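Tutorial sheet, problem 5. The two components below are modelled jointly, 522 residues in total.
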Amino acid sequence: MTATVLGPNGEPAPAIDVRGLHKSYGHHEVLKGIDFFVDAGQVVCVIGPSGSGKSTLLRCVNRLEEPTSGKVLVEGIDICDPDTDLDDVRSRIGMVFQQFNLFPHLSVLKNLTLAQRTVRGRSKDEAVEVARHNLARVGLSDKEAAYPAHLSGGQQQRVAIARALSMNPDMMLFDEPTSALDPELVGDVLAVMKELATEGMTMMVVTHEMGFAREVGDKLVFMDGGVVVEEGRPAEVLGNPQHQRTQAFLSKVL
Amino acid sequence: MRRSTRRRLQIWALNLGVVVVAAVLVLLADWGRIHENFWSDDGVALSGGNWGDLITIGAVNTIKYTAIAFAGGLALGLALALLRLSPVATLRWLATVYIEFFRGLPALIVIVFMGFGLPIAFQWRPPGGLVGAGLIALIMVAGAYMAETLRAGIQAVPKGQTEAARSLGMGSIATTTRVVLPQAFRIVIPPLTNEFVLLIKDTALLSVIGATFDQRELTTIARDFQSSGVSAGTATSLVQAALLYLVITLPLTQLVSWLERRQRKASR
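Model answer (structure tokens):
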């Protein structure tokens, strides 16, 4: 699933390559020059206090937020280039939201087939087959006829993951996927994400789940005040933080 | 006195007051003249006479014109609502000017203008004659009102819905037609039904411009029967038309409140 994509000069391009990214809302600067990359097949977790800009960084990767300056390359493609087919790039980046954002007027199965049909142009039978395969992956095969309002938060989030997977994305973005869930439902969602990681999916995960970051992540990035303060192997960053701001944050959440 | 006792006494006093006022009105009214003027005295109000034309031509046309004006207004309103939410400032501005202009004018004046003003000014023959011109006027006014209702409905759909659709690679058109509008319409069904009821009554305004015999709606026919026929010279035909309007509108207003109750229950 993780195809090796070559950059313009023939070198393997990272799946996500962010360079000198700035983002401001009016005079308020949320991102103050971020350099960040995710290699194909890597799981990178981003942690930090609320307001640190970690969700904004993630949302800049598929241009749900418009970068103010800097570059965002996805598989070597500049997503801010006016010649880039943004919809095509987005269809290869799965995204999972904190608030699930399932389509409430559609059944679970239709939630999974809509974009397959309109974007991928798949036939109905093919789309349904892909949808059922992915519902099985998240353990919700029996819910295909249900409507989102009748599912628990954890079930909704797993459907949202299955919806993103049904597009056969090259990578997945997770924006605090368990923050809106009741504590007893968090485990099911994390288990699905862990399964994805072991299958080799490229993942960028903004999260507060330190256990997940330590166990599953290849790299941990700590952000604060719109900059990357510290990054490295999760065990090292969590176990032996170098920066004083990282130490202060971790002492509060661990 | 206990609070519940006092409350029960208050309600009794109120009921008694209503009964007394009603009784005084009944005693003071001149029933003979009321009967003569509003329910003409030779019994034609109930049997034959006006009912035939009022129902087979009037009520049928009222419903037909309402349906046409509603469908046209809805299409126009949807276009205007989407223009108002357009990223292009000129389009937003054009839609806003249109909406504010036609919401600020009495429908009656627009009807007269479309029926008599424009045809003279531009040598224009409206399709369907004067009634056709009047219907275009109703569509133009209804469209302005429905545009605001639909815009509110579209804006009530959470932003995350659009983001989810776009993140899957869906374009702006597919996102609007497949994700946003189906949810927006669900939100605006009660207010739109309400506007349908208002439109039923607005078709009565078409009586100010001329119509052929078979084109007349309820109010036009009722007014014709004020000057000719078995109840000429009385308001009997207007009372009959009023009853027919209620027969059409009451089920609909009940439908609105049922829809609103259902929506309250369904909302999370």
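Marking note: The first helix of chain B runs from residue 3 to 28. Full credit if you identified this.
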